[in-house]
Amino acid sequence: MNAICLLLVVLIPPLAGAVVALAPWRRRTHWMIFLEFAVVVNSVLVWLLLFNRPADTLTLIHFTGELSIAFRLDGLGTVFAGLVSFLWPFATLYAFEYMTKEKHERVFFFFYTLTYGVTLAIALSDNILTMYCFYEMLTLATVPLVMHTLSREAVLASRKYLYYSIGGAAFAFIGMIFIITYGDTTEFLLGGVLNMVKVGENRNVLQFIYFLTFLGFGVKAAVCPFNSWLPQAGVAPTPVTALLHAVAVVKSGAFAILRVTYYSFGTDFLRGSFAQSAVMAIVMFTIVYGCSMAVKETHLKRRLAFSTISNLSYILFGAVLMTPLGLVGALSHMVFHALMKICSFFCAGAIIHQTERIYVHQLDGLAKKMPKIFGIFTVSALALMGVPGLCGFISKFNLASAAIESGNLLSYFGIGCLLISALLTAIYMLSIVVRAYFPAEGFREETLEGITDPNWMMLVPLIVFVILIVGFGVFSAPLVTLFKDIAGGLF
Amino acid sequence: MEEKMNFILLVPILFPVIAGVFLVWKREFRKRRNLLWFVGTALLITGTFVAVNLMGGERRLTAFYLTKELPVFFKLDALGRLFALLVTLVWILAGFFSFEYMKKEKRETRYYGFYLITFGVLLGLDFSGNLITMYLFYEFMTLASLPLVLHSQTREALMAGLKYLFYSFCGAYLALFGIYFLIRMGNTIEFTPGGVFESGFLAEHETLFLVITMLLIFGFGVKAGMFPMHAWLTAAHPVAPGPASGVLSGIIVKGGVLALIRVLYYLIGPGFLSGTRVQKIWIILTLITIFMGSMLAFREPVLKKRLAYSTVSQVSYILFGLAVCERSAFEGALLHVVAHALIKVCLFLCAGAIIYRTGCKRVEELVGIGKKMPVTLWCYTIASLGLIGIPPTSGFVSKWYLGMGALDSEIPIFSWLGPMILIISALLTAGYLLPVTMKGFFPGEEFVCKREKEPYLMTAPLIILAALTLFIGIFPETVLTVIRTISGVCI
User: Fold this and answer.
1) Chain A contact set for B153 (CB, 8 A)
2) Where are the domains of chain A?
């Protein structure tokens, strides 16, 4: 396909969003149908692009020398773009139903759809400058979504989000400058672009710069100690927390780290260095920390947010193994975690929407009234724990085998951290399930009068996700082969 | 055997699971009788399928692939046959016992649903042909049996259920650490008698494999109630309804034993373990468990808890036999698997029958119970004698082999310390089991009572189980021939 389509998929969502926000719509249904249509068309276009990949790069603006804003679709971008464009239409559908109880809907949907375009732009970036620009733009586009309710809590949360993200981007900026200075090119090439002649004596400096860049992009991927914005940002409406704070935004952080690790600094340069040990230690700590906090947390959405923190670090753990198999593990967890977490978040959202209950201890006996939601929630909980037969097991297995294969002793401890985290996941997820299905004695069913499962707009996305969770759990061979090709530079 | 008939292997696994899921989904039956007919038929049909499978020759079936290197593969070998036969027998008997017992309980449909699901999962565990398949069913065994523990939904049951869950998953994840390594290091993960690793390879990675073995022993040991991870067992087993405690204590703990046999004797190979520090540590732990379990049972006033402590002690007899890595000890261990399963189920069913009829839970309340319920108490007594190890009961034969095996082995100190502790524990067993018989049959002169009605649905399973205990004790060769075919290829 023509490379111009790469620009098209980035532009359609903001334009459609603008039309929704600005045009004088008579009825809610009309703009809903329009927006859903636009999003679906865009996703179809993205998937067409993925299967008929344009070979050339699309340069939009050429600043000077190496610096340009350009789009290109490569293996890693394929995975992220495919993931995002698959989830977005479903999340939009879900959001229509969820947002009926909220105000300023059309503004919300403008920014929501705008984010779609920006995220795709990150996935399609050809070089580090482009990625950096859109990365900053992602922060700005999502701040209004966090702030949406305009409550004091929301304003504080979005301020924190803004400070953290911009601060992180500053670190990333340093990394970008060094790549531009010491690299052959600013493009992303598997294996890295550093010019060893230019680097010369400065190996240690550059490894330290990698560490800074990791932390910088790590802010969005919520690595410890820069994670506190994520649970707080849970005040946003659930479609935002589910799609942006479990998939699009946070995975952009992870995606950026994958890019700089495998495609800019290069794994050969980093493997075995102190920078690798340092980032691995941070990641391992975050894995355990996130889960422990999730066990402690009683607010349902915040609990899931802490779980996201831990699971994002699974992806980063794969990334910092710095082997091709590590990349496979990271990619598979990126995709599978997206499915599982969006599924559990949507369930949480459905519970909030139907019952306005937000704390775990308020969920006693609800499963009887909302059997579909809790059935789906249970599957996603089991998948997150890594029960074999569901997709979470596959990605954890890939991560663990990569860790074993890497032969790095620290990574053996990493497997330990994965398993501790799996146990903690069992605790914080299944205690919800047990509570909902087996309320303790003295529970009065009358208190749940009138509560039902939500309507089809909420259920359809959930059912699709749950089918995929099980489907990839029992049959993931094609996807994992694709990841292996990407990691081997074949795709 | 023809290739196309192999799918029969899946039928006894899937059929009860489907029937169980149907029950859980349906929630209510209009008439209790219909439910009982349904469950009874399902149990018997599954039994028939198992019998068809056991009668046939060796079957192998690769169901599907999780990823390329992880096939879900079933195989019917001698060890699997033995366990499957045991599971089926006990499950059908305890199932019929439930028909009477569960009359007084609420939410019967759900109970039977999960009872059937667990049945199918256990058969899957027995038929597993490789490591990953076994792990899959191992996890599902925990999950499917959890509702049996939670059944009464009292605070106590909920806490016990969560404890069960966390200990089990803790164990499963410890084992998973080892499993990851076994999958990556070995050429195959199919169970092969005698192990799949070359001794040279094992010697090269000795430290790593010792750590793995230790983790596997600890991990699967949790399910088998090995010290120091036994605390869940005495909390979880007694709170379940009578027949469920029976199968939990008699059969499900054996899941841990089966898993240990599979990884140690069918993957790593017993040759590797013998003479190492890990073996010594394991033996010490089992001996501590044997002694401690008996002591704790001795001072426990509640009958069902006393039986649960007894399980802790008795299952470690089996583990001791496995740890010795000697042929007749191994045979003794397998024989004790059979003996203990039948005996413990019988004892728990007796306790259940007593609670059902009289509501008495504590041992001191059981004065004169032999006058009220003679058949039950006779069965209790025979099973008790079996557990103590008095000829002519099955317990005697198994303990004989265990003791002989330990004496034959050339492990310093433990070759005589082991049998000694077995004997001390047997004494304690007599001390905690027989008072019920004595007080029950000889309540004293002034005691008057009338005989309770003992429904045949309760007495028949008890009589069959007690008779089997005697039968195996008198004709041990019937079981031993099967066991010898297993031990012949393993050691």
Assistant:
1) 438-441
2) 272-491
**B96 vs A: CB within 8 A:** no
The band of B1, judged by pLDDT with boundaries at 50, 70 and 90, is very low
H-helix or E-strand containing B210?
A: helix B206-223
Are the CB atoms for B379 and B281 separated by under 8 Å? Answer: no
DSSP notation for B382-432: HHHHHHHT-TTSHHHHHHHHHHHHHHHS--TTHHHHHHHHHHHHHHHHHHH
**pLDDT tens for each residue of B33-61:** 888 899 899 999 999 999 988 887 778 88
Question: A388, B158: Cβ pair inside 8 Å?
Answer: no
* DSSP secondary structure letter of residue A206: H
Q: Which of B298, B262, B12, B274 is nearest to B134 (CA)?
A: B262
Q: What is the dihedral of CA B24, B26, B27, B30, to 10 degrees?
A: -140
Residue B139: CB partners within 8 Å, gap ≥ 6? A387, A388, B172
Helix (H, G, I), strand (E, B) or coil at B322: helix
Q: Is B66 on the interface with A (CB under 8 A)?
A: yes
Task: Provide the angle, in degrees to the nearest 10, between the axes of the packed helices A249-258 and A75-98.
Answer: 170
Nearest Cα to Cα of residue B188 among B271, B71, B288, B44:
B71
Backbone angles phi, psi at B162, to 5 degrees: -65, -40
What is the distance between the alpha carbons of residues B140 and B125, in angstroms, rounded to a whole number? 9
Residue of B nearest to A391 (CA): B66
**Pairing of the two strands A58-64 and A67-71:** antiparallel
Full DSSP string of B18-53: HHHHHHHHH---SSHHHHHHHHHHHHHHHHHHHHHH
Provide the pLDDT confidence category of residue B270 given band limits of 50, 70 and 90: confident
pTM listed for this prediction: 0.91
Task: Indicate the residue of B161, B173, B176 with minimum beta-carbon distance to A434.
Answer: B161
> Residues of B with CB below 8 A from A397's CB?
66-67, 70, 180
Checking ipTM against 0.90, whether it exceeds it is no
How many CB atoms lie under 10 A from the CB of residue A449?
A: 7
In chain B, where the domains are located? 274-491
Share of chain B above pLDDT 90, in %: 48
A422: which chain B residues are within 8 Å (Cβ-Cβ)? 169, 173, 176
Give me the amino acid identity at B6.
N
Q: Answer yes or no: do B65 and A434 touch at CB < 8 A.
A: no
For residue B88, pLDDT beyond 90: yes
Q: Is A409 on the interface with B (CB under 8 A)?
A: no
Set of chain B residues whose Cβ sits within 8 Å of the Cβ of A385 = 169
Token pair 């067409």 in the structure block, residue? A48
Q: Please report, in angstroms and rounded to a whole number, the separation of the first and last CA atoms in chain A.
A: 17
Residue B216 and residue B175 in contact, taking contact as beta carbons nearer than 8 Å? yes
Q: Rounded to an integer, what distance in angstroms lies between the CA atom of residue A377 and that of residue B463?
A: 44
B64 in contact with A at a CB cutoff of 8 Å? yes
DSSP A439: P
State yes or no: pLDDT of A447 exceeds 90. Answer: no
For residue A393, list chain B residues with Cβ-Cβ distance below 8 A: 66
Residue B165 at interface with chain A, using a CB cutoff of 8 Å = yes
What is the SS3 assignment for B418-445?
HHHHHHHHHHHHHHHHHHHHHHHHCCCC
On the question of a cis peptide bond just before residue A225, with omega within 30 degrees of 0, the verdict is yes
Handedness of CA B268, B274, B278, B281 (dihedral sign): positive
The answer to whether A382 and A433 have CB atoms below 8 angstroms apart is no
**First-to-final CA distance of chain B:** 27
Q: What angle do CA B384, B389, B393 make, to 5 degrees?
A: 80
CB distance A217 to A167 below 8 Å? no
